[in-house]
Amino acid sequence: MLGLSANLHYFLCCQAIDMRNGFDGLAGIVRNYLMKDPVSGDVFIFLNKNRTHLKLLYWDGDGFALFYKRLERGRYDQCTAVHALSKEIKREELLMLL
């Protein structure tokens, strides 16, 4: 189970991601594009181009956990930090997304 603790860091990727990416593909994006460590314990949030699908990637200490959500109606808000690779968001913001 993914515990969304207040002491974790949550990073929203500001670039649309192909949702066919799995554990290794998303970890590669975190490492090579966002320049962060995917096994740091931080939670990385990805959205697709249409902003209707969301994936969370999280290292829980002994492996990656992946959470995937598809909206039936509506879209997620776009990343406001247009020129940034990622944007750190608060736990409460993530809970609003979910």
What are its keywords?
98 residues; alpha+beta; 5-stranded mixed beta sheet; 17% helix; 28% strand; globular
Reported for the largest beta sheet, the result is:
5 strands, mixed
Give the spatial strand order of the biggest sheet: 4-3-2-1-5
Oligomer: single chain
Number of helices: 2
Give the terminus-to-terminus CA distance. Answer: 15 Å
Concise overview:
This protein is α+β, with helices and mostly antiparallel strands. The chain is built from two helices and five strands, in the order E-H-E-E-E-E-H.
Descriptive report:
There is one protein chain. The protein has 98 residues and is an alpha+beta fold. It contains two helices and five strands; from the N terminus they run βαββββα. A five-stranded mixed β-sheet has the order 4-3-2-1-5. The protein is globular.
Topology:
Layout: E1 10-13, H1 23-32, E2 43-47, E3 53-59, E4 64-70, E5 86-89, H2 91-97
Parallel strand pairs: 1-2
Antiparallel strand pairs: 1-5, 2-3, 3-4
